[in-house]
Specification:
235 residues, Alpha-D-Glucose-1,6-Bisphosphate, Chain A, domain 4, 10-stranded mixed β-sheet, 7 helices
């Protein structure tokens, strides 16, 4: 169910949510099925693939690795303050409807830079195990998430992140995206933006590595004070 000007929905359709398990299964399949993709390039350590099926708004997949534990990478994605640091365009997320711990309707707002700001109303779901984290989202229409003044309502056909623990200290990261920016943006411009989205993996990686380095450099509360060091020298 997609929120698009070309799609007219009845009240019954608007109130019906996608199946969360099916959306996650689709995301998992799209991340791992190599037959769906053709490689476009490698940029900043991220392999970028384009969907083989030709559509108006192209699907893109990114694959990269981060030398950090899965738990660290999950916090990079799910912590709102951390996310704003590696995704500078994000203006904020608001939970419109809290369906369950792992299923929500979210209103996301993004800075459009030189273009108009964009927002999305999405059905979001995630799942975490000891070896995998996965989330997925798709646009819906929701009565508590109307079009806002100052924003162009964009449509997320599907996007999400999948992270797999390769080892206790190394995580494989997938990102998938397919977005219609809405407004007067032609599809070829939207596809240029779509192709750049998987580079968020590089931004996640760089933030996680920098954050880990700064955390390890913070002195322990049990470290020796300058006064104690001077007393030890006198001894």
């Amino acid at each position: 169910m997609l929120a698009s000007k070309s799609i007219k929905m009845s009240k019954e359709q608007v109130s019906t949510f996608p199946n969360a398990d099916e959306l996650l299964d689709r995301m998992r399949k799209m991340s791992e099925d190599e037959s769906l993709w053709k490689k476009s390039k490698t940029d900043s350590g991220v392999d970028i693939f384009e969907g083989k099926v030709s559509t108006k708004y192209r699907q893109f997949r990114g694959v990269g690795y981060v030398d950090q534990p899965l738990a660290t990478m999950v916090s990079v994605v799910k912590d709102a303050e951390k996310r704003k640091q590696w995704n500078e365009q994000m203006m904020g997320n608001e939970v419109v409807e809290d369906i369950s711990e792992h299923v929500k309707v979210i209103h996301s707002k993004f800075n459009g830079g030189a273009a108009s700001n964009r927002d999305f109303c999405v059905f979001y779901t995630d799942h975490l195990s000891d070896t995998e984290y996965i989330d997925a989202q798709t646009s819906i229409i929701h009565e508590k998430c109307p079009v806002m003044k100052g924003f162009v309502r964009a449509t997320c056909l599907i996007s999400g992140t999948r992270m797999i623990a390769e080892s206790p200290t190394r995580t494989k990261v997938f990102y998938l995206g397919q977005v219609d920016l809405g407004g007067m943006v032609p599809s070829f411009v939207a596809n240029i933006v779509n192709m750049k989205q998987p580079l968020c993996i590089a931004r996640m990686r760089d933030f996680a590595m920098k954050d880990a380095a700064s955390s390890s450099s913070v002195p322990s509360s049990a470290s020796t004070s300058p006064q104690e060091e001077k007393q030890n020298e006198e001894k």
